[in-house]
Specification:
Length: 417
């Protein structure tokens, strides 16, 4: 008998849904002793974004499946210390347990009977992969369209190397695809190589997990000068490099921003050998999107953090960046100062990238796709989740939750009609 529980988060009509059975996961030959019980802090792995349900704390694989085993991809999310801090220290249990399960080849999910339905997923990031995996377990065939050469999204391209090592993102992708019923088409840009109209015609439903992708500018003269770099582009290059020693590293690095990406690039360049690294944020310490723990970690790595620092001009000499002029934003004196910089990273966030939708129009809010409680967009037959939708908090684990909930909504729509 399948378990029925209320599903928290973005759920409207799907307030009660059928989830995997409480029975021992079929096909497992490993023993319970292979998965030692780890003390779990609250909310930790019982946060609804991490697991499908709770169960009695017995020493069995069923409990591991129900309580400790996180949703696909959240093990990688737990490795991002910022997300773990926000979720109450959830890194203590889920990823260590799933690492062990992966080593043993344990499979906690099986596919239901084929439904005969096919679903297109746009984007092979956390939201798209989560949606595809849940749809596959429910018996649907899924085709993922991914513009880049690898799946994984920000887990593969956007997290600093010191946070996601040993090609772990690709191991998670491999685990996701092992369920079967999922085909990934890399190097295909929807809106360019294939139209949304074609997807609507050829598939029973479409899910968009396209992330963001358009970097925000600081809107100062000289922004196009050599040495002024988008932080996410540098991290992308770093994560795909076979020799990080060949990457350019400045002597005086300045990072504009106060979020997780700013912390990542500041620590990463410091570890790559930059003598002087300064993070500049226009407001106070308590206003930064990066957690206090992340800020303290950056300081311990030798990063200087300048608060209330509003950039007002870039100093460009002989065609290259040499410094940044800042204004003290917490007083009315108008005091300014210059920080030397031969490398300036922009880490102030991203916007939704422009996608050629043809004649299809979506309702948007604050520049992102508006969705209802079941992740439906304003276009019939098209769902969306993750960073590209309004109201998302930017955490990978939330994108994974969106993908799972969208899959349940798609399944409900396709099987009840």
């Amino acid at each position: 008998m399948a378990g029925i529980i209320p599903v928290t988060g973005r759920v409207g009509a799907l307030s009660a849904l059928t989830l995997p059975p409480e029975d021992e996961p079929p096909g497992l030959s490993v023993t319970a002793e292979a998965f030692p019980v780890v003390p779990t802090p609250a909310p930790g792995p019982t946060d609804p974004r991490y697991v499908d349900r709770q169960s009695s704390p017995s020493r069995s694989l069923r409990t591991h499946h129900a309580v400790v085993n996180p949703r696909p991809l959240t093990a990688g999310s737990g490795r991002d210390t910022t997300e773990a801090d926000i979720l109450g220290g959830a890194q203590l249990s889920p990823y260590t347990q799933t690492d062990r399960a992966s080593e043993l080849g344990a499979q906690f999910f099986t596919r239901e009977a084929a439904t005969g339905c096919t679903v297109a997923v746009v984007g092979a990031g956390p939201a798209g992969l989560s949606c595809a995996h849940r749809l596959a377990t429910l018996g649907h065939e899924v085709v993922i369209y991914e513009a880049l050469e690898k799946s994984g999204g920000l887990n593969e391209y956007g997290l600093a190397a010191y946070k996601m090592t040993e090609d772990y993102a690709q191991q998670e992708v491999k685990d996701i695809l092992s369920i079967g019923g999922i085909k990934v088409k890399h190097g295909i840009r929807v809106g360019q190589d294939v139209s949304f109209a074609e997807l609507q015609t050829n598939y029973d439903a479409v899910f968009m997990g396209v992330g963001l992708g358009a970097n925000k500018d600081i809107n100062l003269d000289g922004e196009e000068a050599p040495g002024v770099i988008n932080a996410v582009d540098y991290i992308h290059q770093l994560r795909q490099s076979n020799d990080v020693g060949q990457l350019p590293v400045g002597q005086n690095v300045v990072v504009i921003g106060g979020g997780m990406t700013a912390i990542d690039i500041a620590i990463q360049t410091k570890r790559l050998g930059a003598p002087n690294v300064t993070m500049a944020y226009r407001r106070g310490k308590q206003h930064m999107n990066a957690s206090l723990e992340e800020q303290e970690f950056a300081l311990s790595e030798g990063v200087h953090i300048a608060h209330w620092a509003q950039p007002i001009s870039l100093i460009v000499e002989q065609g290259a960046i040499t410094g940044v002029e800042f204004k003290m934003a917490n007083n009315e004196s108008g005091q300014t100062y210059i920080t030397p910089a031969d490398m300036l990273f922009k880490a102030i966030g991203q916007n939704l990238a422009a996608i050629n939708m043809g004649t299809i129009e979506f309702v948007k809010s604050h520049g992102k796709y508006e969705v209802d409680q079941d992740l439906r967009t304003s276009q019939p037959g098209i769902w969306a989740g993750g960073d590209c939708v309004a109201g998302n908090d930017g955490l990978a684990v939330s994108a994974v939750q969106d993908g799972k909930l969208a899959a349940l909504s798609i399944h409900h729509t396709l099987t009840q009609s």
